[in-house]
Every structure is written in structure tokens, then in C-alpha cells.
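Action item from last week, closing it out:
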Amino acid sequence: MHPNPAFRATPEAEALAFARARAFGQLTICGDEGPIAAHVPFVIDADGGALGLHVMRSNPLARVLGEVKPALMAVTGPDAYVSPDWYGLADQVPTWNYIAVHLRGPLELLPPESLRSLLDRLSDAMEARLDKQPWTSAKMSPGVMERMMRSLVPARMRIESVDSTWKLNQNKPDTARVQAAERIAGARSPGSEHAALAALMRAVSPQI
């Protein structure tokens, strides 16, 4: 997480809501030979106390989960390179604006019989966002879902801490921040989701 307090003022509830909406992140634990990471979808419980996920049984991460492990789920949002020329100020330097949320807590395997309900929760949460009749696992042919689930392992991470960085040029004057946002929205800057990042930059209040 970025150490500048200007980028660390987002309330925990808002950061958790962002992670819930994003629903995809990089899960990292420490194995016997070093860090192990997997990019996974997840679903956060209604009370925000835990998240559920699944990985392939063949994933190295699944193979070391014989015991509860401290884990980090890193969730990233829109990001972009910011050219110093875009502020309209002298003596600026290049930077990168971004959003990141880190969820930490113990990760444990769940019983195999919990997998089906976890998969249904994941698909239900995503299908509800689409403009169509929701897909459900009940549409699968008899036996197909059961065969596919043999290759998956369900897991649960209790959320003990939520940290976030919302680096949106809050440390710049309002005019400079908005100018940079306009250039990000219209430029082919390295990064992703430029329009979303620019909208967030326009919405924040400067910290100086």
C-alpha cells in the first residue's frame, strides 16, 4: 500500500465494497519454497467477514492448503500512467494513478460438499449483473457439473484487515488534477479503464 496518507483516506467499507464489486483478484500465500499466487474470482459474504473462492485441484496453491495459511487477496482497479506535462505545472514528475485493495486473513480449505453452493453463489452474483435471464448450474446436463467439480477445490478466507490505496492525484491542486483526468480520459496512456479512472479523479477532493 502507498504510504502517502493522501491516498489512504478511503473508508474501509468503501474499499470492501469496491472489492466485492470487482470480484476478481490475485490470491497469494507463502509456500514452503516461497510465495504462491493464483488469479481467482471470489464472492464476499454479506457481512463482509469472509470471502469464498475455488482453485483448480492441480494448482500449486491448492496443494499446500493442508493447513490454514495466512493469505493476501490483492484486488486492482483502473490505472494509468500520468505524464507530468498534463498538470500544467512546473517541476512535476511522471507517476502512475491506480486503485488497489488488499484483503488479508487466514485461508483454509472447505469440505468438498460445500463446492456446489460456492459455485452457485459466484455465478449468481455475476449473472445478476447481466441484462439477460440468469444462467444457473441447473441448466447443466445430469452428471456434467459433478464431473467438472472433481477438478476444483473450495476455500474460504476470513477477512481480518482491509487496506486500500486510491492514488488519484489528491496531492495536486484541483485544476491540475482535473486537467490530468481529462488527458487520461482522451489519451492512449499505458494502463487500463482510463474513463473510469478519470471519473474517479474528477470526483475526489484535493488534500492540499
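Closing note: The longest strand covers residues 95-109.
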